[in-house]
Design goal:
single chain, 2 domains, alpha/beta, Aspartate Aminotransferase, domain 2, 13 strands, binds ligand TLP, Aspartate Aminotransferase, domain 1
Length: 346
């Protein structure tokens, strides 16, 4: 039976060209900054994001942790969304390891934080308060339907932050999806913020790795924090080689994933018993719901899984499908066929 895995874009396997790049990578000790392939990836990442420097880390989670630790001291505060990946899914690392207080503001459906909410959350100088050091945005926003944040919105947050002496970090795990959806160069989304992290292992399909990008001074601090977290890697060129290949070959195809997500969304809208807000589908993430609440949510996941279609229930009766480089248009048709059959039998 064919498997169509729509649990996440993290499930992709490296293309043969990535395996070839890994096999022939020039290596050295990256803790001494002597791994030529890692150095090449870091400078390519910095150029791509329009920043002075970049740092390779093993995961998106470590990228955000290293970034937040590098912007904030213990006892200071970061403003972020109540649906932010850093708040929801990173095991509380910023408070566990950084002693950093989080101030969660309600994420709007489009992934934004209201500017007035941000403004009123910024602390005044008062001995009772933790000083606000950082605002974190997420682009695209995973829990908010994979929505892309616009250039205008990002600039407004950066302006507000700058006026108050606060930094902005963007969790750009899927920032190339945002740029593709908005049909702009990714630099437009990163130009106004202090730091951005992005993942090689999601839409770009590389096996491992994320990059933190920012000023040279910030990245020097990030390097120290990565070391403290145990993330200093030796012949990291093994990972970086696939990352370079990914940045060179996988960015331009990301809009295919968005087209496939749209096919899925349009098909789901036609299926009795399922509901979807088509307008939320802007990138490679599709959220939909089961209308029949008398059926336990996991039944749909399990029945579909028995027939080879895998995805997650992210909250009761609400599901997420993620398209990626290892699924194509035929897989979308097949998945929809199976959805129809399963829903008819439920
Ligand atoms: N997200 C994963 C899961 O952790 C939920 C997924 O399948 O979507 N930022 C964002 C916006 C993310 O979506 C993720 C991963 C991360 C950071 C963390 O990346 P990794 O998994 O590399 O630590």
């Amino acid at each position: 039976m064919k498997t169509i895995d729509l649990r996440s874009d993290t499930v992709t396997l490296p293309a043969q060209s990535m395996m070839d790049a890994i096999a022939s990578a020039q290596l050295g000790d990256d803790v001494f900054q002597e791994d030529p392939t890692t150095n090449e990836l870091e400078s390519l990442a910095a150029d791509t994001m329009g920043k002075e420097a970049a740092l390779l880390v093993p995961s998106g989670t470590m990228a955000n942790l290293v970034a937040v630790l590098s912007h904030c001291e213990r006892g200071s505060e970061v403003i972020l969304g109540d649906q932010a990946h850093t708040f929801m899914y990173e095991a509380g690392g910023i408070s566990a390891f950084g002693g950093i207080h989080s101030r969660q503001l309600p994420n709007q459906r489009d992934g934004t934080l209201k500017l007035e909410d941000v403004e009123s959350a910024i602390r005044q100088d008062n001995v009772h308060f933790p000083p606000t050091r950082l605002i974190c945005l997420e682009n695209t926003h995973n829990r908010c339907f994979g929505m892309p944040l616009t250039v205008g919105y990002t600039k407004s947050v950066a302006q507000l932050a700058g006026d108050n002496g606060i930094a902005v970090h963007v969790d750009g795990a899927r920032i190339f999806n945002a740029a593709a959806a908005l049909k702009i160069n990714v630099k437009e989304l990163t130009g106004s913020v202090d730091s951005v992290s992005f993942c090689l292992s999601k839409g770009l399909s590389a096996p491992v790795g994320s990059l933190v990008c920012g000023s040279a001074e910030f990245i020097a601090q990030a390097r120290r924090n990565r070391k403290a977290l145990g993330g200093g890697m030796r012949q990291a060129g093994i990972i970086a080689a696939a990352g370079i290949e990914a940045l060179k070959t996988m960015v331009d195809r990301i809009s295919d994933d968005h087209r496939n997500a749209k096919i899925l969304a349009d098909g789901i809208a036609e299926i009795d018993g399922l509901s979807i807000d088509i307008d939320t589908v802007k990138t490679n993430i599709v959220y939909f719901s089961l209308k029949r609440l008398e059926i336990a949510g996991e039944v749909l996941v399990n029945r579909m899984s028995e027939l080879g279609i895998h995805f997650f229930e992210l909250s009761p009766h609400t599901y997420r499908l993620v398209t990626h480089a290892d699924v194509d248009e035929n897989d979308m048709d097949e998945a929809l066929k199976v959805f129809k059959k399963v829903m008819a039998d439920l």
